[in-house]
Design brief:
It is globular and about 55 Å long. It has two domains: 2-101, 3-Layer(aba) Sandwich (Rossmann fold), CATH 3.40.50; 104-231, Rossmann fold. 37% of the residues are buried. Strand 1 (2-8), helix 1 and strand 2 form a beta-alpha-beta unit. Helix 4 (103-115) packs across helix 5 (130-141) and helix 4 runs antiparallel to helix 8. 31% of the residues lie in helices and 22% in strands. The strands form two sheets. A six-stranded mixed sheet has the order 2-1-3-5-6-4. The chain has eight helices and twelve strands. It has 246 residues and is of the alpha/beta class.
C-alpha cells in the first residue's frame, strides 16, 4: 500500500486525514493508498519518519515546519524556492525528495472568490511564517502591495500596535496567515482594532478549523466580508494529490 501523510508538531486541528480518507473511499482507492498524521516533536525527526515508513509516496507539511523542512530536501520547484516555504514533498523513485508549495493554489482560488473583479491595491498580512510567504507570493502576482504585521518589529513590516485608523482604512484586504484562532484555541483572534473595519473590508482567514473563526466573526459584525481557509485546504490537497501521482 502506498503511504501518504502530514507532518507537523501538533495535528489535532487537521482535517487532512479525514479529507483523504473520504476521497479514497469515494474513489475506491482504500486498498491502494493510506494517509496518516505524523506528529514530529522536532523537524530532525523527519529523517526517521521517512526511513521507517515503507512505500512512502510523499507527505504534506504544516506548522511549524514549512520553512524548516527545506534543508532536508534534495530539490525544490522554482515556485517553492521563490516562496521560501514547502507544504508538499514528493519522494521520487530514486529516493530523492522534491519540495513543492501547493498553498499558493488554494490562496489563488480563495482570492478569486473573495475579490473577484474588485480593485485591491494593498493588503495586511497577519503573520510572518511559511503560510505568510505563500500569501505574499500570490499577492505579488496580482500586483497587490502588502504590509506584514507581526508581534515584533524584527519579523514584520509593522506590529499590531501600529494598526492605526489610517493603516486599516488604506488596506481593505486583511489576511490572517497566522495560527491564531485555530482549534483548540478558538477563543483567540489576531489583535486588530476591529471597530475600525467597515463593509468595504474583506477578510481571509487561512485557518479552517473552526470554519468560522473569531477573526471572521468580529469582522462580519462590522459588515466586512469574510472567508475561511476551507476552500484553500481542499485546493492544496488536490494539487498535492496530482503531484504525488504524476
Amino acid at each position: 500500500m502506498k503511504q501518504l501523510g502530514l507532518i507537523g508538531r501538533t495535528l489535532g486541528h487537521s482535517f487532512s486525514a479525514k479529507y483523504f480518507a473520504e476521497k479514497f473511499e469515494r474513489e475506491s482507492l482504500t486498498e491502494e493508498f493510506s494517509y496518516k498524521l505524523y506528529e514530529l516533536p522536532a523537524i530532525e525527526d523527519v529523517e526517521e519518519f521517512i526511513a521507517s515508513t515503507p512505500n512512502l509516496l510523499g507527505f504534506n507539511v504544516t506548522i511549524p515546519y514549512k520553512q524548516q523542512i527545506i534543508p532536508f530536501l534534495d530539490d525544490l520547484t522554482p515556485e517553492a524556492r521563490n516562496i521560501g516555504a514547502v507544504n508538499c514533498v514528493k519522494i521520487l523513485p530514486d529516493g530523492r525528495r522534491l519540495g513543492y508549495n501547493t498553498d499558493v493554489d488554494g490562496i489563488r482560488l480563495t482570492l478569486d472568490k473573495l475579490i473577484g473583479e474588485d480593485s485591491v491595491k494593498s493588503a495586511l498580512v497577519l503573520g510572518s511564517g511559511g503560510a505568510s510567504q505563500a500569501v505574499r507570493y500570490v499577492l505579488g502576482e496580482r500586483g497587490i502591495e502588502c504590509l506584514v504585521v507581526s508581534r515584533n518589529s524584527t519579523s514584520g513590516d509593522i506590529t499590531y500596535d501600529d494598526l492605526s485608523t489610517d493603516v486599516i482604512a488604506a488596506n481593505e484586504l486583511i489576511i490572517n496567515a497566522s495560527p491564531v484562532g485555530m482549534y483548540p484555541r478558538v477563543e483567540e483572534c489576531p489583535n486588530l482594532p476591529y471597530h475600525l473595519l467597515t463593509p468595504k473590508h474583506k477578510l481571509f482567514d487561512l485557518v479552517y478549523n473552526p470554519q468560522v473563526t473569531l477573526f471572521m466573526e468580529r469582522g462580519m459584525a462590522q459588515g466586512a466580508q469574510a472567508v475561511s481557509g476551507l476552500d484553500m485546504l481542499y485546493a492544496q490537497a488536490e494539487s498535492a494529490w496530482r503531484i504525488w501521482n504524476q
